[in-house]
């Protein structure tokens, strides 16, 4: 099974989640600056909420996917909102990419809100989530 992990972050919170997911999947986490170059069965795509919406870099990455993706699995963090699932799903489905019904989400720190998140438990939960998705 071919698995890829891509993420976009401004604060390194999503990077931490991406690295936990990638380690569980036995692959390297890469930023959305690195396009997919071959078909994948599962694409774990990490993003975060900035100004209440999906960052343009993530939208651009999705728009640029030119290979077959069996299933896109979103993961994200946010201090206040509950994730980017709906926004990622909309952008991916416009490209004809199937999006999993499941996503991983945890709180992310913003100033004093959710201080210290994602924490070690969040990272362990992200790894367990990846293993469950991979089967």
Overview of the structural elements:
The protein has 135 residues and is of the alpha/beta class. The protein is built from four helices and six strands.
Helix/strand order: EHEEEHEHEH
Separation of the first and last Cα atoms: 11 Å
Shape: globular
Number of strands: 6
Largest sheet: 6 strands, mixed
Class from secondary-structure proportions = alpha/beta
Tally of contiguous helical segments: 4
* pLDDT averaged residue by residue: 90
- Beta-strand content: 25-35%
Rg, Cα atoms, Å: 13 Å
Given as residue ranges, the uncertain stretches (5+ residues, pLDDT < 50) are none
What is the helical fraction, as a range of percent?
25-40%
What are the main properties of this structure?
single chain; 135 residues; alpha/beta; 6-stranded mixed beta sheet; 4 helices; globular
């Amino acid at each position: 099974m071919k698995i890829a992990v891509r993420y976009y972050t401004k604060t390194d919170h999503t990077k931490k989640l991406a690295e936990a997911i990638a380690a569980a999947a036995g692959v390297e986490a890469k930023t959305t600056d690195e396009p997919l170059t071959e078909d994948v069965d599962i694409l774990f795509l990490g993003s975060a909420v900035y100004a209440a919406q999906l960052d343009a870099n993530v939208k651009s990455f999705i728009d640029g996917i030119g290979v077959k993706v069996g299933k896109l699995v979103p993961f994200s963090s946010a201090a206040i909102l509950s994730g980017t699932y709906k926004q990622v799903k909309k952008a991916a489905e416009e490209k004809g990419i199937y999006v999993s019904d499941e996503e991983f989400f945890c709180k992310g720190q913003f100033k004093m809100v959710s201080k210290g998140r994602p924490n070690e438990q969040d990272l362990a939960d992200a790894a367990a989530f990846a293993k469950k998705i991979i089967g």
